[in-house]
Amino acid sequence: MLRSDPLNKKMTERMYHRDSYVTECEANIIQKKTVKNTVEVILNRTCFYPFAGGQESDRGVIGGKNVIEVREEGDAIIHVLDGEPEQTSVHCAIDWRRRYDFMQQHTGQHILSRCFLELEDAPTISAHMGETRNTVDLKVAILDWERIVKVEEYANEIIRKALPVSIHFFDKREDCPFDLRKEPVVEGIVRIIKMQDFEATPCGGTHCMNSVEVGLIKVTDYQKYKGGYRVEFLCGGRAYGDYHDKVVLLAVLRNELSAKEEELVQVAVRIRESEKSLKRELGSAWRNYLKLQAEQIIAEYMHSPSVVLKKKFHDYGIEKLIQLAGMLTCKVAVPVVLIGLGEEIAVVISAAKESGAKLKESCMPVLQNYAWRGGGSDT
């Protein structure tokens, strides 16, 4: 049986279930409580969508107070406000720009998921529409950019067809005559989002009235995830904004690298290879320099031996101190203490195994003026 108003048994009438374009309403506060620095209210009716179904919640104003969170608890919608409204009868207004953005993302996700199912036999296991990025997790063994591009092209073709999007309610799954992309996960009344003959899916979220409102779907990345693949995508205004940002980024890179757009990858590869070569040359130069330092230190030690060979260096990190300590301990039979002074103090204590030196016993007096901690054995 088709339901025209399935919300009459709910504590809060959910206006967005029937019409995603409702942006304002008058409501009564039926419950409220203070939680730390916020006030939580339950209304008899609301146009605010709560966090649910992988979609973030609405923001806006209730009774002149900012809505900072909306969540679902059983039959109630909890609105978290930054203050207490003065009246129990309140005017509610959602942030329409945010709502419409999520409508584009969610409707786009339905289109993309159906396209992946049709072209790649890849069902969507879960989906999330976040503040800045969206993801669908697919159950599929193989996925690459060639396949993704075909799915994306098909999805944008569906957008351009301007398919009407409709909302349907049924008492139970058996009453629904549509070929559903996935089965309902709730018992009882089922809400279906249908896109003409292309797509029909159980969903409680907010959606556009027509596929053309999604504007554009753009896959931005993909990766293996839990035996399948996770695909990142953007829709509508977000996709256009991302394109704008990338156009600006490419312009900056072209100017900075003095290269044409089609040459940027080759230039980046050359820079990376040059960096690797410079690191190798610098590493070799440092090793030669440390060898010279080690020879000088050993000569000084031989001229004036002590029970501990101690040296301080400015701006020597732990890696250089370890290299130098290795060069010294193979030439002297006493413990070596090297201290690197800078923003942070680095200390290396070392001795040849055959020396039998007890490092804590012999070196602690040398280090008593330094706050340090570390690890390693006593020999």
Automatic annotation (TrEMBL):
All copies of the Threonyl/alanyl tRNA synthetase SAD domain together span: 190-232
- Membrane spanning stretches: none
Q: Carries keyword Metal-binding?
A: yes
The answer to whether keyword Metal-binding applies is yes
What's a BP term from Gene Ontology annotated to this protein?
Answer: alanyl-tRNA aminoacylation
Q: Which InterPro entries match?
A: Ala-tRNA-synth_IIc_N (IPR018164), Alanyl-tRNA_Editing_Enzymes (IPR051335), Thr/Ala-tRNA-synth_IIc_edit (IPR018163), Transl_B-barrel_sf (IPR009000), tRNA_SAD (IPR012947)
Cite a single Pfam family from the UniProt record. Answer: tRNA_SAD
Q: Name one GO molecular function term.
A: metal ion binding
Please give the cofactor(s) recorded in the UniProt entry for this protein: Zn(2+)
Q: Which domain of life is it from?
A: Bacteria
> Keyword annotations for this protein?
Metal-binding, Zinc
What name does this protein carry? Threonyl/alanyl tRNA synthetase SAD domain-containing protein
Which lineage is the organism of this entry classified under, starting from the top rank?
Answer: Bacteria, Candidatus Fischeribacteriota
